[in-house]
Fold:
Amino acid sequence: MAEKVNQESAIGTIIGWGSLGVFALWFAYQVASPLLIGEQWAEKQQDAIELVKNSKPLGNDTLYDMIRAYSLKAKENDFFVGEFSWSAIQKDGPEYEVTLLWTEGEQKKVALWRVNLENKEVRPQGDAASLPQRLAAGPPKKPAGS
Structure:
């Protein structure tokens, strides 16, 4: 008696393993892509800070030049302005958060910007939006008799 030989089609195996291969490549891309994008923009804090410093919020002078002029006017008016400290933190890919801390008289001040290094966009947040106008107006005058 002859035994019946069970022959399976190779097409099912090819489709099964091919689908698994495609899924593995897609999954690797989904996992690796954000890591590679984040790595591309990592350690660019100084670039983010420079982008804010070199922005021209009122169209003429850079923000950094406005801060220097404000400090000089404050010194002429015997008003203390100092301890400027810039920092930046990477949020997501090319997105950074840039912070400026300084002392004005007896008060500590903070300004915050969101920066996108990819498209060079600088977005002031909160008090940073009015900072250029305050800088242009100059420091407060010291009260007479002080």
